[in-house]
Amino acid sequence: MSLKRFRFLLRCLRFDDMGDRIQRREIDKLAPIRELFELFVENCKKCFSPSEYVTIDEQLVKFRGRCPFRVYLPNKPAKYGIKIFALVDAKMMYMWNMEVYCAKQPVGSYNISNSPSDVVMRLMNPILGSGRNLTTDIWYTSIPLAENLLKNKITLVVIFQQQFSKNRELNSTIFGFQKDLTLISYKPKPNKIVILLSSMHHYAAIDESTTDARKPEIITFYNSTKGAVDTVDEMCGSYDAGRNNRRWPLTIFFHLINTAGINSEILYHCDQLTSNALKRRVYLRNLAMSLIKPQVLKRAAMQNLLKTIRHKAARISGIPFVETEQNLPKKTGSNGRCALCPRSEDKRTRNFCVKCNHWVCGKHYSKVCSSCMDSSRCFMRNDLPMKSWVNACGVLNLNDSTQNGSHWNAWKKMKNKIIYFDSFGINPPPKELVNYLGKHNLWYTDRKFQDYNDPPICGHLCLEFIDNYKKFI
Description:
Blueprint: H1 3-12, H2 21-25, H3 34-47, E1 53-62, E2 71-72, E3 80-89, E4 95-100, H4 116-124, E5 133-136, H5 143-151, E6 155-159, E7 173-178, E8 181-189, E9 192-198, H6 217-225, H7 228-238, H8 248-272, H9 280-300, H10 307-317, E10 336-337, E11 348-349, H11 388-391, H12 406-413, E12 419-425, H13 431-439, E13 443-448, E14 459-464
Parallel strand pairs: 1-5, 5-6
Antiparallel strand pairs: 1-3, 2-3, 3-4, 6-9, 7-8, 8-9, 10-11, 12-14, 13-14
Helix pairs in contact: 3-8, 9-10
């Protein structure tokens, strides 16, 4: 897909029926994406059962355009954006439930309370009575909330406003017990006191693993579960699918894509039950390729497309590319215009490629003897990752190495593109390699990728798979 086509699809992308949007927005600010958002959340609930520990916190999806419920949170990195209340599994970091903060809604069925207690009860409603524990931050601190959750068989661990005192011993703890609630006051620093409320812990226990800090078990439990939502935020930022735009429904849609990538990876690893887990980058790449493969297979079979496009589609989908004789360009004369040169140059030539049957000028044409075309004289380096999608590029090396050295590091530094690196020092690449590249429709660039701490006399030649045209990295 071209960049122009991609941008066109983004401009046209909508998530509801624009015919009745005006009527729906009279009672719901989230009308442009409400149906898709709720459908996504319901699917997240159906596919996963959260563990015994869950966390509720707020997310801020970065957005600076016009939005009726955009908020400003100075303690968040993005500052401005769309606030989403999220319930996350504290063990697996699975996003299980979400609710968009829409501020004050118009009068109607969506005009609901945004108080912290009501938000918590709405998010926890599907798992009330399950005996799970909830960890929240100071914004949701409420003793009536803790009592209400306890009636529904949900325990709560929450932090209170920090206080300051100089008259207490360092690392000291004061416990307070009242019926089903426990209150602790812990002094971790000379001028700081931390107060926590728990309906899960009912005894004065100190975590022995904290040694001299003498932290209560409530503190260590809270620290281990409080950051689930922040971890999900960090994972979304590492591989963000979002694009800069001024349409807030599209921003929420990008956030759903990020969440879907995280949740699907968790489900995948739970289903595989193996210790050799895929890295998140590799998983997302494989997921994207799996999603586009049906369309790629369809395009690979369309004979009216350019050969270069069908060749790429076949290579991506892993099927052999077969070009029939009747699909090759027909030669109508003894010479023609070079297919690889710009139209402005208008180069005429008598040479043509025996593989694609296109006219090519001397700049893009090379004569290779049968011995140089013998691929048995070339082989892959052993220090490259032996993966099929890397080897499929057809770039082979004339030298062998059995150690993971600078080539491997260079490959990683170039963001793992389908590129091969080889060292030729200050000399040009061997003619045998150049001829072999020509046989496989490959070109080389003279750009050097410096990867050594020694004097810069030995660079890496960057080679990239090209289909019938020259391209510089």
